[in-house]
Amino acid sequence: MSFDQEWAELKAKAAMRLDSAPDMDPGGPSPGGADLIVKADDMGKIGHAAFLLHQHLSSAGKHAQSHTEAAAKSLESDGFDMGAALAKAGEGWQGQLQVLLDACAQISNHLDYSVKSSKQDDQFVAAEMQVSKISEYLDVPSSTSDSDAPHVPKAEGPIM
After folding, report:
1. In angstroms, rounded to a whole number, what is the distance separating the alpha carbons of residues 137 and 126?
2. Predicted confidence (pLDDT) per residue in 4-16, tens digit
3. I want to staple 76 with a disulfide (CB 3.0 to 4.6 A). Which of 17, 67, 83, 85 is the partner?
4. Using an 8 Å Cβ cutoff, are 139 and 92 in contact?
């Protein structure tokens, strides 16, 4: 069987498995019918883990860099082609390490931003709801109410 045939067969099997997968979690739908619920605490824990991984990789990932560079120079000066190959491997390692460090930083920063942004959104919505509730009470009394009632005009536009 050729690679293309085997690949096509595996893709077809995967597609059938995906088509037969249940739409919802077997435990039942989540409250409100949401597919995904993420709490700020969970995002904070993941962001903190990404931050710790970034810190650890920053130092541990560069642990052998000086030794690798020294060995590569020594091999090259002795006339071995392996020195250039080792230097190239070391550069490749540093490049991949930087990609991983950038990804960890991006995850940590994005989750921190998402938590803060979500809190700000929640505060804004809460303030808007309170303002709209207050606005119900700032209405002009109807003509059928007591004439002794204070006249408080309803505010126009947003109250902030």
Report:
1. 18
2. 898 899 989 888 8
3. 83
4. no
Tell which wins on pLDDT, 49 or 43: 49
Three-state DSSP class for residue 59 = helix
Tokens standing for residue 72: 């590569």
CA nearest 45: which of 145, 135, 112, 132? 112
CA distance 128 to 72: 64
Three-state SS string over 55-119 comes to HHHHHHCCCCHHHHHHHHHHHHHCCCCHHHHHHHHHHHHHHHHHHHHHHHHHHHHHHHHHHHHHH
Could you report the per-residue pLDDT of 14-30, keeping only the tens digit for each? 888 877 766 655 555 55
What is the value of pTM for the model shown? 0.50
Question: At residue 139, does pLDDT exceed 60?
Answer: no
